[in-house]
Amino acid sequence: MTTALDHLVVAAATLDDGVAWCRRTLGVTPGPGGTHAIFGTHNRLLKIAAPDWPQAYLEIIAIDPAAVVPMRSRWFGLDDPALQRRLIEQGPQLVHAVARSTMLDMHRWGLIAIGCRPGDPVKASRETPSGRLSWQILVPEDGRPDCGGALPTLIQWDGAHPTDAMPDSGVTLDSVILRGLPPRPAEVLRLRGVQLQPATHGQAPVTVVVSTPKGRVTV
Q1: pLDDT at position 131 over 90
Q2: I need a surface site. Which of 17, 167, 173, 185 has the fewest CB within 10 A?
């Protein structure tokens, strides 16, 4: 069974920083998002769908200063002090990719069997003007994605997908590169439409090219 790119994660020190980055870098304002009480975060979303990734979107996420401190580590490594320093000093950064599965448990055990650390399933949901979004997502106990961030976080949606209610943004995804994903987990995931490259010192585990109102942009 294959997986598909679901969304890309841009982390920011504050959500306002993330919105400003999006306007400055991509030339558009992200749409509304919501809050995630279980992880103490909030987000804004932007549809970036293209023929190879028909349900792809960009998530700009930050720790929610109004939220109760969660009982568990936040997802996508957001509790990492080094990451938070970079976000303050360098600005928002593309930090991760999330892949969609229709057989989450099968993919999870397949990754565990070869020594990966995909995380445990967490059920989450939030209300939107178009109705409730519900999903399961794999999150390691310490919140840090495996393989230096190159192993995509796996998600399985229950019913509606966020892009079902998102307008076109004028931004479309052209290419996706993952760096440092070992061959065996790559074979388990069989991620469609994504280029795999070896880890390179000084380069992020995820790089994408998008077409925007400002032209083609590498993030």
Answers
A1: no
A2: 167
Structure tokens at 98: 């999330």
Q: Which helix (H) or strand (E) holds 86?
A: helix 81-90
Q: Give the contacts of 130 (CB within 8 A, at least 6 positions apart).
A: 160, 164, 165
Pair 173, 210: CB distance under 8 Å: yes
How far, CA to CA in Å, does 208 sit from each of 48, 71, 131, 179, 217? 11, 33, 30, 11, 8
Using the predicted structure, report yes or no on whether residue 200 has a pLDDT greater than 90: no
Q: Identify the helix (H) or strand (E) that includes residue 211.
A: strand 206-212
Q: Are 199 and 148 in contact (CB under 8 A)?
A: yes
| CA 138/CA 151 separation, integer angstroms | 11
Q: What is the DSSP letter of 162?
A: G
Give the closest residue to 121 by CA, choosing from 154, 97, 149, 92. 154
pTM: 0.95
Q: Report pLDDT digits (tens) over 53-93.
A: 999 999 999 999 999 999 999 999 999 999 999 999 999 99
Q: CB of 60 within 8 A of CB of 10?
A: yes
As a whole number, the mean pLDDT across the chain is 95
